[in-house]
Amino acid sequence: MFISTKEDILNAKVTDVYFDRAVYALKVKGLDKRVKAEVSVKKLPKNYKWGVFVGLEEVLELLVSKNINVRSIKEGSIFRENEPVLEIEGLYSEFAKYETAILGFLCQESGVATKAARLRKLVKDKLLLSFGARRMHPAIAVAIERAAYIGGCDGVSTVQAANILDIAPSGTIPHSFVLLAGDTVEAAKYFDETMDSDVPRIILIDTFGDEKFETLRVFEALGKKLTGVRLDTPSSRRGNLRAIIEEIRWELNLRGTNDVKIFASGGLDEESIESLVDVVDGFGVGTSISSAATIDFSMDIVEIEGKPIAKKGKNSGSKSLFRCKKCFSDKVLPYSYKPQNCSCGGTMEDILEYVIQNGKTIDLPNVKSIRDHAQSSLRFVDL
Ligand code: PCP
User: Fold this and answer.
1) Regarding beta strands 228-231 and 319-324, do their DSSP bridges make them parallel or antiparallel, or are they unpaired?
2) Which residue is closest in CA terms to ligand 1's atom 1?
3) Which H or E run includes 194?
4) What is the distance in A from the centroid of ligand 1 to the CA of 283?
5) 265 CA distance to ligand 1 centroid (A)?
6) What is the pLDDT of residues 171-217, one digit of tens each?
7) Is 289 in the pocket of ligand 1 (CB under 6 A)?
8) Which of 49, 75, 146, 303 could bond 56 through an S-S bridge, CB–CB 3.0 to 4.6 Å?
9) Do the beta carbons of residue 42 and residue 295 sit within 8 Å?
10) Closest atom of ligand 1 to CA, residue 175
11) 235 exposed, middle or buried (CB, 10 Å; 0-12, 13-18, 19+)?
């Protein structure tokens, strides 16, 4: 398989070659110096106003043995354009070759988490499941699903990721099972007869017949054991999916059950989710989360041997990122400055904190705390 091992990454094998060359030339010419380098994003994807910062735990695993200091915002924090999210201080050659991996972790995982967070805000309290591992290289399935979970997915479909996240894996049944059973009701019965009692009986009902009639057949067969149905209706048949779902809801309610849930999946993104959120109980989302646009962070030197310097287009000097605890507005100031109170009267606190200092790394929060931190922040921002 075409993958880099953890050792390859830790040994900077995945570095862009120009870092190798730069470090070599700097050493030969005696130009290697202590610097401060800052990670920030100039332009968020599309019309995004914020992102969710994910990937820090792996960056720290990469850097912990290096002779450097690192300040960072907490993993799971909201950030905005042109805000420093991480700063590395040390001899340039100590970390230069890791820039490729550092940005790789942060760009892709923050992108997935940000899309999951945007969908979380759209689905409100409805179920949101990450079904997209199949759309990406399997070597990064765990990283992708962890980011989706932190961003706001309630569950993930891959077994290994769910185990690592210490949650039960989420899923229903594939079309292949229904096809091999030869009939949707038979498939529902076989599934019910073979699964442990704690596995929800959510039956895929778009393989053969009309979704409404297949739902009623399955409800007839499973009754109270039926947890829900999933519509993954192909685009060639999708038509007005909302109207189909409303019809199914009507028929189920008419038969005395609003307990049977209706789930939608298949090519869903923000627009389609927004159009369905009031008529479905949950969503399975693949491509749009797992292949979400990356947040294109860059790493830029902002100080050399204590003197502020940066390339054109970048403000020099080490910085603080002050955030109002009351209204969540931000102010980027030079590191030595102390902020006034926020114009709303709230107090501002520097959310860039040391995570590696003098060889010591902070105790890392568990993924559920990281997810809670992200979810509690989402109420302060809009799409
Ligand atoms: C896909 C599978 C995924 C759904 C779609 C979400 O259907 O059910 O869970 O993926 P998406 O958001 O990327 O479309 P199929 O590809 O028909 O797979 P299967 O027959 O296994 O359900």
Assistant:
1) unpaired
2) 266
3) helix 184-194
4) 12
5) 7
6) 999 999 999 999 999 999 999 999 999 999 999 999 999 999 999 99
7) no
8) 75
9) no
10) 20
11) exposed
